[in-house]
């Protein structure tokens, strides 16, 4: 029988991909470090739209950001349109950048993009 002509799933869009490390920095990352993947507004706003956090563990690391990671329920990730993604590896576990943290960024990318390859390729001074 023909499938019913139902509306597409109303699931909100997600951002999915993997965080990897440049060869020079991979040896400097410790499994006990904390990884943050931060989605910021593409217009340069500093307040994150959404944040994913987990222990670093083994590389590469899959990530998935959706509305459950939004910082402000009134401005969910699904309404952001385009975002800049930042991966930050923190020794302290704090989300704010500090000297020696490892970081990488990409974007702007459209919310809903998958198979993103986000590379950590620099150390913060």
Short structural description:
The chain is mainly beta. Helix content is 3%, strand content 41%.
Shape: globular
The largest sheet has its strands arranged as 3-2-5-6-8
Count of DSSP helices? 1
Give the CA-CA distance, first to last residue.
63 Å
Q: Name the average pLDDT.
A: 90
List the helices and strands and how they pair.
Layout: E1 15-21, H1 23-26, E2 34-41, E3 50-55, E4 61-65, E5 82-90, E6 102-110, E7 116-120, E8 122-123
Any overview of this molecule?
Helix content is 3%, strand content 41%. By secondary structure, it is mainly beta. The longest helix is centred in the first third of the chain and has 4 residues. The protein is globular.
Can you give keywords for this protein?
three-stranded mixed sheet; disordered N terminus; globular; five-stranded antiparallel sheet; 8 strands; 125 residues; mainly beta; 1 helix
